[in-house]
Amino acid sequence: MLDMQDISRVYRTDLVETHALRGLNLSVDAGEFVAVTGPSGSGKTTFLNIAGLLESATDGRYLLDGVDVNTLNDNQRSRIRNEKIGFIFQSFNLIPDLNIFDNVDVPLRYRGFGGKERRQRIEKALEQVGLAARMKHLPSQLSGGQQQRAAIARALAGNPGFLLADEPTGNLDSLMARQVMDLLEEINANGTTIVMVTHDPELARRAHRNVQLLDGQLASPDLFARPAAADDVDLQPVA
Ligand SMILES: Nc1ncnc2c1ncn2[C@@H]1O[C@H](COP(=O)(O)OP(=O)(O)O)[C@@H](O)[C@H]1O
Ligand SMILES: [Mg+2]
């Protein structure tokens, strides 16, 4: 589903060049739940942004569902991003003066769905994350854990095949973090591929596979090669 070969990303300013990724090789199969760890500055966010088509690699090849993303124009990239990929961020990124229903609606409006379809998708997503009774609340009227669940509903409402999460529990206490992780596991068990950056070793252990970034590369490439049989994924216990 995601196949990166020799991906580099260089940020250039007048004064400095930062090599955020240096020849990263990483594949993620459909149905996997992969946790990405690594020190601050090791390139985790850059990797997710490239994976999610928010940014382009400076060099290397990235195939998403078999499509070489380098061959896509801006419109095609946005369309694929909106249709296939959901994002979750550490800081939730909800719009403060929209209620939860309208927050989940934002990307659906952007995609041009009609009112009835949007309502159905929003209600289903909010039900899935346990917030059906909170639709009319503003983000500030919810706990951090609930806000992150609302952000997950916003990502899910688009029906993405692929969920990218950048330290989704970084602003949550450990109980709420575990609840968000329970929800991500359930979403993965329902068929959504998940790549999650996390600092929390306990949460990382719950993923199918851990990869560690160090200075823009895999920490030990041999350990993290693609699993021998992709259908192993189906044998993972469901929490
Ligand atoms: N937009 C940017 N402009 C310049 N440098 C950047 C930018 N984004 C990230 N970097 C640099 O790239 C490196 C990797 O950053 P990042 O991917 O955010 O790491 P992580 O998420 O692992 O903390 C860091 O040295 C960071 O300062
Ligand atoms: Mg980061």
What does this structure look like?
- The protein has 239 residues and is α/β, with parallel strands linked by helices.
- It has a single domain (29-57, 72-227), classed as Rossmann fold.
- Helix content is 33%, strand content 25%.
- It has helices at residues 44-51, 74-84, 100-110, 115-128, 144-157, 174-189, 201-205, and strands at 2-12, 17-28, 33-37, 59-64, 67-68, 85-89, 162-166, 193-197, 209-214, 217-218.
- The strands form 2 sheets. It has a 6-stranded mixed beta sheet with strand order 6-7-8-3-9-10, with helices on both faces. A 4-stranded antiparallel beta sheet has the order 2-1-4-5, covered by helices on one side.
- Helix 3 runs parallel beside helix 5 and helix 5 (144-157) packs parallel to helix 6.
- The structure holds adenosine-5'-diphosphate and magnesium ion.
- Magnesium ion binds at residues 44-45, 166.
Please render the helix and strand layout as text.
Blueprint (H helix, E strand, L loop, with lengths): L1 E11 L4 E12 L4 E5 L6 H8 L7 E6 L2 E2 L5 H11 E5 L10 H11 L4 H14 L15 H14 L4 E5 L7 H16 L3 E5 L3 H5 L3 E6 L2 E2 L21
Parallel strand pairs: 3-8, 3-9, 6-7, 7-8
Antiparallel strand pairs: 1-2, 1-4, 4-5, 9-10
The structure holds adenosine-5'-diphosphate and magnesium ion.
Magnesium ion binds next to helix 1.
**What's the helix count?**
7
Uncertain spans: 229-234
Overall pLDDT confidence = 91
Total number of β-strand segments?
10
Largest sheet: 6 strands, mixed
Bound heterogens, unique: adenosine-5'-diphosphate, magnesium ion
What would you call the shape? Answer: globular
The CATH architecture can be named as 3-Layer(aba) Sandwich
